């Protein structure tokens, strides 16, 4: 039997083409790393009402500071689409990108980040 049928959170695949979610854009306006953690900022109800379903879902998920890769998986959009939409939300002042690794980051910091991302992906 198909495992997805028994899952209560299973939804039918979206028939919306990915390029329509990003108005045809394939690159984010700002660089957003796949491992970058995204955090929601306080938003008024007026601003929230302006959002589409995907943007609202990403904003809600961002309260838990997931990575961009986790957002893509949980929302069910290609990673490129997630990056473009997250960048749009950053520019709109609705979410922020938490500090990711720098070139001078220690091995321990790199390992911690990889473990957090893998833990989040396993939780999906």
Task: List the topology elements.
Blueprint: H1 3-6, H2 18-21, E1 38-40, H3 45-49, H4 53-61, H5 68-75, H6 79-91, E2 95-97, H7 107-122
Antiparallel strand pairs: 1-2
InterPro entries: DUF742 (IPR007995)
Pfam families: DUF742
Protein name: DUF742 domain-containing protein
Offer a concise description of the structure.
With 124 residues, the protein is mostly helical. The chain contains seven helices and two strands, in the order H-H-E-H-H-H-H-E-H. Helices cover 48% and strands 5% of the residues.
Description:
By secondary structure, this protein is mainly alpha-helical. The protein has one domain: Arc Repressor Mutant, subunit A, CATH 1.10.10. It is 48% helix and 5% strand. The protein has seven helices and two strands, in the order H-H-E-H-H-H-H-E-H. It has a two-stranded antiparallel sheet. Helix 5 crosses helix 6. It is globular and about 40 Å long.
